Amino acid sequence: MSSPPTAGAPRGRTLERDLARVEGKGPWLRRGLAFVAILLVAGSLIAWRVKSRPAPKPKYLLQPITSGDVIETVQSTGTVQPLTQVQVGAQVSGRIVRVLADFNTEVKKGDLLAEIDPTLLGAQVAQNQAQLEASKASLARSEANLRTARMNLDRARKLLAENLASQADVDTALGQHDALSAEAAAARASIRQISAQLQYSRTSLKYAQIFAPIDGIVINRAIDPGQTVAASFQAPTLFVIAQDLRQMRIMADIDEADVGKLAEGMAADATVDAFPGEVFKGSVKQIRYSPNSVQGVVTYSALIDVENPDKKLRPGMTATVTVRTHEARAISRIPNAALRFKPSPPVDKDGKPEPVPPLPALAHGKGRVYVLTDTTPGNEKAEPKVISVGITDGVHTELKGQELAPGEQVVVDETDQEAAKKQRRNMF
Questions:
Q1: pLDDT (0 to 100) of residue 325
Q2: pTM of the entire predicted model
Q3: Is residue 150 part of a domain?
Q4: What is the C-alpha separation between 78 and 315, in angstroms, rounded?
Q5: Domain that holds residue 405
Q6: How high does pLDDT run on average in the chain?
Q7: Shared-domain flag, residues 371 and 321
Q8: What average pLDDT does the segment 12-32 reach?
Q9: Contact indicator for 122, 135 with CB cutoff of 8 Å
Q10: Dihedral (Cα; 324, 330, 331, 337), 10-degree rounding
């Protein structure tokens, strides 16, 4: 027998149904809340990335107009040489018997440097001396015979006047007189000839001793005792003497593009590898007109006299010479990179450069730079401006006009736009 239904049974079933309905919606609610939370986190992250993103990279690199010095220079290399250099040779041939000077020997003018064997030269002097004495004796005999012939001629003429001699006797005496007179003249000529030979022999004997022609120092010696010197065709160089090593000369080769900037008297600095960091002061002594052409490169020789009080510079060293051609002190100057800068042409939608009309040619003493007319980061605009320029030192150029004010920025280069675009894409 079943029990009768109660009043609380329908309420229980309704509550169960409501609970089942709520439990069925639970997973979808949790998924929705999670999705909303993800969206909020992603939005916050994007907002933070956008807010913290760096400003767009500038399109151009800028440098300001500065104040300072501009010194225009011409640089070249050359060989160090003594100011005065004398090659001492031999004028006679023979065997060297003595060498009295060596490398680096300081000598005075007239000092004996070397001596050639004087035996043969002395014998030649003695022979010529004997010949001269014989010629003088022959002249004395000829003059004595001439005096006798003159007396015979006078006697014959007197006898002819007294009709005691014939004309034939007078003619014979006259012929003997003339013959002896010619013989005496020949003896005198022989004396002069032998005297010249004797003088030559004595001079050659003196040349056997080689003396220093100037005060200086021996920088080269090319002989040794016992060596034979042959001076038949060309005088051999035995010694090289530099007059004063406290004054040196650099023979520099100046490029034809720079020779017009140089003038005599300009200040110059010289450096050598042997003394790094040390500068030797000098000046331009001479600029030669004769060209030097080597493999199509034309240069001109310039003589640079430099001070060498400590005798550090040595003949033959390779020196780097810097000549200060012009100077401008405490002036406005512009970077040379700004004068060389040319903006890249714009590109079309296919990435090809668009044609740009050429700018007008610049007159002498003018330059062209680019200044910003729009400074919006990433969208800057640069416009050309013509300015008046002067000398340059290779890094800066003198600004002679008032087109730009000190501190004003000029464009010197462009930034890498492709790298900037990649950087922005990588942020997201």
A1: 92
A2: 0.64
A3: yes
A4: 11
A5: 60-70+332-426
A6: 85
A7: no
A8: 59
A9: no
A10: 60
pLDDT at 423 over 80: no
Query: Which uninterrupted H or E stretch holds 122?
Result: helix 119-161
Query: Is 140 among the domain residues?
Result: yes
More confident residue, 400 or 46: 400
**SS3 sequence of 173-207:** HHHHHHHHHHHHHHHHHHHHHHHHHHHHHHHHHHH
Do 226 and 191 have their domain in common? no
Q: Are residues 147 and 282 in the same domain?
A: no
200 φ/ψ angles, rounded to the nearest 5 degrees: -60, -45
Distance CA 136, CA 129 (A): 11
- The per-residue pLDDT for 191 is 92
Q: What are phi and psi of 381, to 5 degrees?
A: -125, 130
pLDDT for 140 beyond 80: yes
Beta strands in 222-279 (DSSP E): 228-229, 237-242, 247-255, 267-272
**Strands of 275-380, DSSP E:** 280-294, 297-307, 318-335, 366-374
Three-class secondary structure of residue 161 per DSSP = helix
CA–CA separation, 66 and 71 (whole Å): 15
Determine phi and psi for 404, rounding to 5 degrees.
Answer: -125, 140
Does residue 221 register a pLDDT over 80? yes
Q: Which residues contact 86 (CB under 8 A, 6 or more apart)?
A: 213, 214, 216, 240, 241, 243
Residue 290: inside a domain, yes or no? yes
Q: Is 151 helix (H, G, I), strand (E, B) or coil?
A: helix
3-state secondary structure of 392: strand
The number of residues making up the chain comes to 428
